[in-house]
Design the sequence.
């Protein structure tokens, strides 16, 4: 048997958890654990269990709880009675907090002995014991004080672990964890010190100094102090390029990167009431597809997360969690074509290895899962067709699917096991209330408890909100809470879930009516957002308020349990809460108020996305946006990495914004938001999202007779079709785009269409026709005076001429392109043109010039950074030129560098280059 307290207080025996339902019983066990193997006086326990105000019956209640606890224990944990009190005898290692302390002590010893590698492993194992805040479900003052002390030791151990990883030269491995750590603990200077060191060791000196400025400003703003001596000295050492800061030589390159095991579960509830039989049946289903079905608010997600956390040790390759949004405030659900690339990426499949077709992606997912033991939690499914492509096949991986529908087709096709989640029984509902409100209040008013349970119809969501209300009013009798529920139910229109047995409007209105006027308005406006979550800046834009005021109101909504800050700076709520908020907005806010708020929100994502799109690609012309409305707070786009992170985070939101704009008459913004997504969706392989958003954009442009929007959407639908090898669709859309642009007399736009036609024809090997369109694009760009387009067309014409063996013509085009790119300061284009010229010199046999020009291209790509594939392609070509020139050592060096990059990218061309590296000299 073991006791786990580094999280909720739990008893485990032979892999099975023994539920400790009563709060007083958990509190007693927690107090005894804190003094394990020592006598705890009876009067001390009474005082601490009742926080200094014990009732006359306290001693008798204590003795009853001791008796109940003793029955739960075994020989590893013995609870003995002594004259003055009680002692909990625990064998070494039986309590997780003891194992944690011992492991940390062992790690210190290993570090002193010079075995830092083993210390890192020991500390990692120690930190994995933590499942959340220590004693998370015990509210006793003494226990909370000890929990705070334990929390400090946890963070000390975390910092020791991260420092040890850095001391081994593994700064890349530590960077991600350090960034998360300082985000969660921004006032711990040691974390910042380690992060800044890791950034410097990774060659990111400017970023390291920027982090120092951030922590300095943070400490000044929050505490009114300067950074400590260690941080100040670290800044000076970085400025002086102190060699002692350099990582240990050669340690990191020789270390194979560890695959990150996904652990994506949301935070589980502290105590799951009832469901014991259902949990037992779920324990028997590992390796199968399991369906949890039931009405809205019935607790399907809560149960799924609880069970997944309970059995996480059985899935060593990770647990993935995704909300499929089958039922929610909008009609847009997560389609398999949108989710499959994300699932594969999360399982470690490089993006370049993800095929474009949904069927192939689904097959690849089954192949990956067949070799692993992972759990997919697919929440809120719409129907069986949505789920089928996402399910594992043969092997030890499992899937847990929740839905409001029965999905019986999966029972037939995938041998799925279906479990119906029912309303809580009266006893289980009372247990849920007791876990939130306390046993004493429940026992004191059984009639009021019965009224509360009846009023909530056994619906877990409703019960949880009722309990939260009662817990926030500890001086209120439960009868008053029950009476308030009855009064509100009579005075409001019904807001019902699908089974019509639970009136959630009354319950939700408690929290809403307690809000300040400004917070209530923000809550209503959040119902207009497409979800699944929203950032601080987007919420500020939606409301038209500044960031500071919006943050304050979001905190108020979070405190009132109407919102959840599930990750720092991002907020979400249950779909029923969003529906409720939207209904309140329709009831209380005029049409023009809601329409204007939606416009500000769309403007936020459009302004932010446009800035991001221009950072992602220098090949596109910016589009002309209407001025942002007052109150819009766009997200700043700093660099390529941050921009990609923003698009990744807002991916689903942006898809919803495209639909929202179309359905609310913002037709120009609709196609423009879709325009901002093109490069991101292309880079990430979200082909179907690309097609879907452009179709919505095209319809919006047609509806408003926006010819330019139509032409643009047709062109990008053609680009998507080209990627998906749908050449007939590509030609059709390009023809329609070209016709519209001719009507608009848009010469440069026509040039881009001809570039698109050239690309489609090139993909078919139709080089001559492709070249003709490339030359036509060149003529059009020159006629329009579009110099960047002209440079791109020159380079395209040069490359196509080289493919046809017309090397003189290719050389002329390539030199013109290079000169124009250089004049325009377009480094990326100049790198591409230099590569074309290097290829031409190589084919003509001028190997010295080929080496020189390839090297120039490579230098440019390296200086730009971020475009690693083209850097690898340049190294590969440079290696070929060195090889043909007889410099085999230089060739092999270039190929090896190219291979290293291609392996990092997981690119299929790696095998071709690997054959060169492994081939015989000469």
Sequence:
């Amino acid at each position: 048997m073991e006791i786990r307290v580094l999280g909720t207080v739990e008893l485990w025996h032979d892999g099975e958890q023994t539920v400790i339902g009563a709060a007083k019983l958990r509190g007693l066990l927690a107090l005894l654990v804190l003094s394990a193997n020592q006598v705890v006086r009876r009067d001390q326990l009474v005082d601490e269990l009742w926080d200094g105000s014990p009732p006359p019956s306290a001693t008798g209640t204590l003795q009853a709880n001791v008796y109940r606890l003793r029955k739960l224990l075994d020989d590893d944990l013995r609870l003995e009675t002594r004259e003055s009190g009680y002692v909990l005898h625990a064998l070494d290692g039986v309590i997780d907090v003891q194992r944690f302390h011992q492991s940390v002590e062992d790690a210190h010893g290993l570090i002193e002995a010079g075995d830092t590698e083993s210390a890192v492993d020991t500390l990692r194992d120690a930190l994995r014991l933590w499942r959340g805040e220590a004693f998370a479900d015990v509210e006793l003052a003494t226990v909370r004080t000890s929990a705070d002390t334990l929390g400090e030791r946890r963070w000390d151990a975390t910092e020791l672990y991260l420092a040890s990883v850095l001391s081994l030269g593994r700064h890349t491995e530590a960077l991600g964890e350090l960034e998360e750590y300082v985000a969660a603990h921004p006032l711990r200077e040691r974390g910042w010190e380690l992060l800044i060191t890791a950034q410097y060791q990774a060659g990111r000196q400017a970023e390291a100094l920027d982090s120092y400025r951030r922590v300095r400003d943070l400490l000044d703003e929050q505490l009114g102090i300067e950074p400590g001596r260690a941080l100040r000295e670290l800044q000076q050492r970085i400025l002086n390029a102190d060699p002692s800061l350099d990582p240990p030589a050669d340690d990191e390159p020789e270390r194979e990167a560890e695959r990150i095991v996904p652990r994506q579960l949301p935070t589980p509830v502290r105590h799951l009431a009832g469901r014991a039989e259902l949990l037992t049946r779920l324990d028997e289903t590992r390796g199968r597809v399991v369906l949890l079905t039931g009405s809205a608010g019935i607790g399907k997600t809560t149960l799924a997360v609880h069970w997944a956390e309970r059995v996480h040790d059985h899935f060593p390759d990770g647990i993935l969690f995704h909300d499929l949004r089958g039922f929610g405030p909008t009609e847009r659900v997560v389609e398999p074509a949108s989710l499959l690339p994300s699932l594969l990426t999360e399982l470690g499949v490089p993006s370049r290895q993800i095929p474009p077709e949904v069927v192939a992606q689904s097959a690849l997912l089954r192949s990956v899962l067949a070799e692993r033991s992972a759990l997919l939690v697919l929440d809120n499914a719409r129907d069986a067709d949505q789920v089928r492509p996402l399910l594992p096949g043969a092997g030890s991986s499992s899937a847990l699917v929740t839905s409001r529908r029965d999905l019986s087709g999966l029972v037939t096709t995938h041998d799925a096991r279906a479990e119906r989640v029912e309303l809580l029984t009266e006893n289980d509902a009372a247990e849920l209330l007791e876990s939130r409100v306390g046993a004493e209040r429940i026992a004191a008013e059984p009639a009021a408890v019965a009224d509360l349970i009846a009023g909530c119809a056994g619906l877990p969501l409703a019960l949880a909100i009722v309990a939260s209300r009662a817990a926030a009013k500890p001086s209120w009798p439960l009868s008053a809470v029950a009476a308030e529920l009855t009064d509100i139910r009579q005075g409001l229109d019904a807001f019902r879930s699908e089974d019509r047995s639970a009136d959630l409007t009354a319950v939700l209105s408690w929290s809403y009516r307690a809000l300040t006027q400004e917070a209530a308005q923000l809550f209503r406006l959040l119902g207009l957002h497409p979800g699944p979550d929203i950032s601080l800046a987007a919420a500020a834009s939606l409301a038209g308020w500044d960031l500071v005021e919006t943050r304050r109101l979001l905190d108020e909504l979070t405190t009132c349990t109407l919102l959840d800050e599930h990750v720092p700076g991002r907020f979400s709520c249950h779909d029923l809460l969003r529906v409720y908020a939207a209904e309140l907005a329709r009831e209380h806010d005029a049409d023009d108020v809601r329409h204007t708020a939606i416009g500000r929100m769309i403007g936020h994502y459009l302004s932010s996305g446009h800035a991001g799109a221009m950072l992602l690609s220098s090949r596109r012309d910016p589009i002309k946006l209407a001025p942002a409305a007052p109150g819009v707070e766009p997200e700043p786009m700093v660099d390529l990495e941050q921009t990609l992170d923003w698009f990744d985070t807002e991916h689903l939101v942006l898809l919803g914004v495209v639909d929202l704009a179309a359905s609310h008459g913002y037709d120009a913004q609709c196609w423009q938001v879709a325009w901002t997504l093109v490069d991101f969706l292309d880079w990430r392989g979200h082909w179907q999202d690309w097609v879907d958003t452009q179709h919505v954009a095209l319809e919006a442009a047609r509806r408003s007779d926006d010819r330019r929007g139509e032409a643009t959407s047709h062109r990008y639908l053609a680009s998507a079709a080209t990627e998906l090898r749908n050449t007939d669709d590509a030609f059709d859309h390009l023809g329609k785009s070209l016709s519209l642009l001719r009507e608009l007399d848009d010469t440069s736009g026509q040039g881009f269409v001809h570039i698109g036609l050239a690309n489609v024809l090139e993909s078919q090997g139709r080089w001559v026709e492709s070249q003709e369109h490339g030359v036509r694009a060149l003529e059009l760009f020159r006629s329009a005076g579009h110099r960047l387009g002209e440079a791109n067309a020159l380079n395209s014409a040069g490359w196509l001429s080289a493919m046809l063996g017309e090397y003189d013509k290719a050389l002329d085009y390539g030199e013109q392109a290079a000169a124009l790119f250089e004049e325009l300061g377009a480094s990326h284009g100049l790198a591409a043109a230099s590569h074309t010229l290097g290829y031409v010199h190589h084919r003509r046999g001028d190997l010295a010039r080929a080496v020189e020009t390839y090297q120039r291209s490579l230098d440019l790509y390296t200086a730009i950074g971020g475009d690693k594939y083209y850097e690898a392609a340049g190294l590969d070509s440079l290696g070929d030129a060195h090889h043909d020139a007889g410099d085999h050592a230089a060739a092999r060096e270039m190929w090896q560098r190219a291979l290293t990059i291609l392996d990092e990218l997981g690119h299929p061309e790696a095998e071709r280059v690997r054959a060169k590296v492994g081939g015989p000299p000469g």
